[in-house]
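Narrative of activities, Objective 1.

The group set out to show that a structural description can be obtained from nothing but a protein's sequence at a throughput compatible with the screening campaign. Below is one input-output pair from the validation batch, recorded exactly as produced.
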Amino acid sequence: MIQVRRYCTYLSMLHWEYGHPLQEPHAGDYAVRDYKTAHKTIHLAKHSTVNLALAAIDHFYRFLELPPPQVTREDLPTLAPRALEPSEQKRFLRAVQCCASVRNRAIALLLFYTGLRISECAALQLADVRLSSRKGLVIVRMGNGNTYREVPLNAEVRTALDTWLEQRKKLAVQQNESALFLTKRGTRLATRTIDEVLRRLAQDANLSLSAHTLRHSCLSNLVRNGNDLVLVA
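Output recorded for this entry:
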């Protein structure tokens, strides 16, 4: 209502060069375009505020049984995905080290150091992890756009996964269950459960994060360490 009142006040001060803006559609187009320009240049309104005003004016014209003015919305700036600061990363890793669950430590370190998406982590099979004393990798068979990729594992992740695999052998795994990460009942761990694991660890570290945050933290670290941007992409 406030936005509509402001627009009507603006119209009351206009010389209607192209016709009545509340009766003739083409005149309304010109009037709203000029109002948008004034909103940006005189009132220095943010793009989101301009779009809010235009949406309110659209509803006003529909109320008058007129077509909404043909005025393009402002493109909102794209925010860079959040990545943990170095000090936050240390707090998160300390919380992971203090975690009593072998499985949860392996999940957290895998996501932090490889940048896997949470869905990719949940979809991992036993055969997708290749470990040796000196090297290791994880295979993502159906990544974004159904792409295949192999991601190397550092020593910390290899140790965590190796410990989890030993514990996994002791679980009553359901027949033909080949998932890497399992529940206590021996079934595949759901994406939602992995998200809950991360959020509990984040709470222990007094942080707010998700698997997406860890993914972008991993990618940011790779860029900071001088890795080729094409390889990171």
